[in-house]
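anyone seen this seq b4? input:
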Amino acid sequence: MTEIVLSRKERAGLLDLIAHTNDARLLRRAYTLLWFDEGDSALEIAEQLQVSRRSVYYWLDRFLERTDRPWVDRVSDADRSGRPVTVQGIIDPLIDAIINTDPRALGYPSTGWTAPLLVRYLADHHQLSASAPSVRLALARLKIDWKRPRHRLALRSDTWRQAQGG
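predicted toks r here
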């Protein structure tokens, strides 16, 4: 069993991390280390956080091995392999630059931008292959919110029944 005794500086760093992080994973790991220091068992911590006991030990070992790194790196998850992000940081400024222009000015037969049309624009003008969900996520990151036009041409007035004698 791995034991941990946090120094005053480490404890203060973890408390500061807890107070200022927006990442739930970092928060869980910081609490794990503090609870370990207070004497809670790995099983108790694992049940509290609904993770495996082995995960608790991994987090503890990783924190103890990374003494030369900043707090966030000591508590953060290990690097993982996998498919790299392809267009996330690339398409945001391109969409932001074009979203307020009329698509007809670029030769598209539409009066407003849609996600599929933005995908087509990125392919035509920037040779980027992006999916419609990637474009929607970029729009959300840019806090661009649009709605399709709702055509309300034939609405009746609130008093239409009275006008009909009803």
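The radius of gyration is 27 Å. The mean pLDDT is 84. kinda curious what u guys think
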